[in-house]
């Protein structure tokens, strides 16, 4: 499958920073929140412990007996033995999925301090490396990211602005960039098109999944 087809067919934006990736063998969620059409998860990756990223209620909607939940230590909630702790620089393999944790933090605001060791992820699904940045600013570590797809926040306030996300996309130089973290709490859905128009990279604008 071509990269752009994979993004459009297999990566589902669920609104805000929430995604579902439908792999051939495993279904991976990242930061599930306000789920409209919950489908069972094999793996759930949590970037940090803010309520709009760590939602035990939403995880409960998609959790199976063998669902594995990955996140920083302060995201364990009541997940018990299903939880696997991770920190920036670490990699775990769950079922057929490689999950790399990368730094994610603010540089000019205090909402997401670097000392918290919160994370973004690079998950490898069906041979494609998908980078979910988490709630972050434009940070030096992005220069080392190797990804086919970059899911980048564009809403500002708590994360990068559109202009900073454009710089991040250039620095990462993934095959496809996808804007996120807008249209709920902060940012406007129009920010997706602004990002696409300003970017020199290939951008695919996904529409959030709506309830039936």
What brief labels describe this structure?
globular; Metallo-beta-lactamase, Chain A; alpha/beta; single chain; about 210 residues; 6-stranded mixed sheet; about 15% helix
Give the overall pLDDT as a whole number: 95
If you consult CATH, what is the topology?
Metallo-beta-lactamase, Chain A
* Continuous helix count: 4
Give me the Rg, rounded.
15 Å
- Lateral strand order in the biggest sheet: 1-2-3-4-5-6
Helicity, as a percent range: 10-25%
Q: What separation lies between the terminal Cα atoms?
A: 28 Å
Question: Order of helices and strands, N to C?
Answer: HEEEEHEEEEEEEHEH
How many DSSP-defined strands?
12
The CATH superfamily turns out to be Ribonuclease Z/Hydroxyacylglutathione hydrolase-like
Query: What's the architecture in CATH terms?
Result: 4-Layer Sandwich
Q: Number of folding domains?
A: 1
> Uncertain runs with pLDDT below 50, 5 residues or more?
none
Biggest pleated sheet: 6 strands, mixed
**What is the CATH top level name?**
Alpha Beta
3D shape = globular
- What structural category do the secondary elements indicate? alpha/beta
Structural description of this entry:
The structure is a single chain. The chain has 212 residues and is of the alpha/beta class. It has four helices and twelve strands; from the N terminus they run αββββαβββββββαβα. The chain has one domain (3-198): 4-Layer Sandwich (Metallo-beta-lactamase, Chain A). The strands form two sheets. A six-stranded mixed sheet has the order 1-2-3-4-5-6. A six-stranded mixed sheet has the order 7-8-9-10-11-12, with helices on both faces. The chain is globular, with a radius of gyration of 15 Å.
């Amino acid at each position: 499958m071509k990269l752009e087809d994979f993004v459009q067919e297999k990566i589902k934006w669920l609104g805000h920073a929430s995604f579902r990736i439908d792999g051939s063998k495993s279904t991976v969620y990242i930061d599930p929140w306000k789920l409209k059409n919950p489908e069972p998860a094999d793996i759930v990756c949590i970037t940090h412990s803010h309520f709009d990223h760590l939602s035990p209620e939403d995880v409960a909607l998609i959790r199976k007996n063998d669902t594995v939940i990955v996140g920083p230590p302060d995201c364990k909630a009541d997940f018990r033995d299903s939880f696997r702790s991770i920190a920036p620089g670490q990699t775990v393999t769950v079922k057929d999925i490689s999950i790399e944790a990368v730094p994610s933090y603010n540089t000019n605001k205090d909402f997401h301090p670097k000392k918290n060791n919160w994370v973004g992820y690079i998950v490898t699904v069906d041979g494609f490396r998908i980078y979910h940045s988490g709630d972050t600013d434009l940070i030096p570590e992005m220069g080392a990211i190797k990804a086919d797809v970059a899911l980048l926040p564009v809403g500002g306030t708590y994360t990068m602005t559109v202009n900073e996300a454009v710089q991040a996309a250039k620095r990462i130089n993934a095959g496809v960039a996808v804007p996120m973290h807008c249209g709920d709490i902060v940012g406007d859905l129009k920010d997706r098109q602004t990002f696409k128009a300003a970017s020199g990279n290939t951008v695919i604008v996904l529409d959030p999944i709506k309830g039936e």
